[in-house]
Amino acid sequence: MLAFLPYWVEPVARYMVTEGLKVTAQIAGVAVLFSGVAGILLGTLLTIRWWPLRSLIRLYIEIWRGLPLIVTIFLVYYALPAFGIDIQPWLAAAVALTLWGSAQIAEATRGAVESIPREQHEAAAALGFGWLGRHTFVIVPQAFRRLLPPLVSLLVNVIQNTTLAALIGVGELLTTGRQQIETLLFPPPVGTGQDHSLAILGAVLITFFVISFPLTRLAAYLERRLV
Amino acid sequence: MTLAASSWSLIWANRDVLLHGLVRTLEASAVAIVGVAVIGVVLGAARAYRVPVASQIAAVYVEVVRNTPILVQVFFIYFALPQVPWVGVRVDEFTAVCLGLMFWGGGFNIENFRAGFEAVPQRYREAGLALGFGGAAIFRYVVFPIGGRIAIPPSINTYIAVLKNTAIAGPAVGFAELTQVAYGIIEASLRTYTVFAVIGVVYLLIVWTLSALIRLLESRLALPEARR
């Protein structure tokens, strides 16, 4: 089908998709899931007016949003083994992305939860719900509508930032692309003896664009529809 | 804690190297931020005024920047662009870092300034017309100062992000800014993460200071009529 392409393209592309893109999806999936859960939890707790808890969560948010993400990745990657936790590089990247992502979502959740009118709290309280039940069954589900655009934006940002895992040697899409560039530099039969950086890095750029563009459109659409 | 003691002394022994890395971070950020500001104002104005061709190019540029990872952008500029006939030039690491950050930050800053220029109330422009100003004079004396003023707080956010992203662009091309230097120290010694905690604090101090500046400016720079 793609016979007009040079012979090396098919195996290279196959490897990058089946190996690289798989790891990219793995990191992004784990990071988005845990960021969402932890972020919504922390953001909801942030609406409690008790200053020790508040300032603790505030500190968490400001630290992980303030640090350059790559520094967080290096920090997690090198610090966890020092505490006796043996962790695979891809998971270290996912943990760092989760710290950063949960801080983003916590901030958004606080706003969303606080936007729910106080009558909703009072009505739920009148039905006999305690703080936990009120938030689990009444407030957070309503706030979730407003959280959809930031969650989709987070997904886009997390997918793009999975590439940072390349800097700690994780074999995600960018890394596999760069490996293939190196391999193709070898003379035949191993490689082609040529530098295919332009084609391969271009393909990586286009892949990310094709994945992200519909999602940023979706986030913008949700933003207009739901707010 | 002998391990902790040794890692602190390791950092102390490398303080000059780390300080030099910080200087390189600030240098690259400063150069990139100037470029980002120029791109933001020029193409932001092109977007706000819907200048044919320039506006469409700027729109595509913004979408490309937003929807692709900065690390891939930097790799592309450093490794792939030199292969493009006619336009391709191999640049040194410092230039690559600055160009990469300019390209990335520019895309976000266009949106900041477009929004700023578009937020200038129509009647301000009409007031300019009533004074006999032409289109260029209205931009120079009305839209640019007022719209630019509205765009300053969000654009500083972009500049902070540019500074933070030196930590990505540096290690990507092997430019010895703060993070790359810290990485070098780790690789050359026992694997002590303390050095990343230390540079993390440095980054946080810079970022938090600039964020506080934004909050200060936000109320100061708001248009009088937007103040409550």
Can you describe this structure?
The complex is a heterodimer of chains A (227) and B (228). Chain A has 227 residues and is mainly α. Chain A has a single domain (9-226), classed as MetI-like fold (Orthogonal Bundle), CATH 1.10.3720.10. Chain A contains eight helices and no strands. Chain B has 228 residues and is mostly helical. Chain B has a single domain (14-226), classed as MetI-like fold, CATH 1.10.3720.10. In chain B, 81% of the residues lie in helices and 0% in strands. Chain B is built from nine helices and no strands. In chain B, helix 2 (15-48) packs parallel to helix 5. Chain B is flat. The N and C termini of chain B lie far apart (55 Å). Chain A binds chain B through residues 62-63, 66-72, 74-75, 78-79, 81-82, 156, 160-164, 166-167, 174, 178, 181, 195, 197-198, 201-202, 204-205, 208-209, 212-213, 216, and chain B through 63-64, 66-73, 75-76, 79-81, 83-84, 164-168, 171-172, 179, 182-183, 186, 191-193, 196-197, 199-200, 203-204, 207-208, 211.
Task: Report how far the terminal alpha carbons of chain B are from each other.
Answer: 55 Å
Structural class of chain B: mainly alpha
Relevant CATH superfamily of chain B: MetI-like
The total of beta strands of chain B comes to 0
CATH class of chain B: Mainly Alpha
| Backbone CA Rg of chain A | 22 Å
CATH architectural name of chain A = Orthogonal Bundle
Total discrete domains of chain B: 1
Shape of chain A: elongated
Per DSSP, what share of the residues of chain B sits in E-state strands of 2 or more residues? under 5%
Shape of chain B: flat
Number of domains of chain A: 1
Number of contiguous helices of chain A: 8
Helix/strand-derived category of chain A reads mainly alpha
Strand portion of chain A: under 5%
Relevant CATH superfamily of chain A: MetI-like
Topology summary:
The complex is a heterodimer of chains A (227) and B (228).
Chain A: H1 9-45, H2 51-66, H3 69-82, H4 89-114, H5 118-126, H6 131-161, H7 173-185, H8 197-226
Chain B: H1 2-13, H2 15-48, H3 54-67, H4 70-80, H5 93-118, H6 122-130, H7 135-173, H8 178-188, H9 194-221
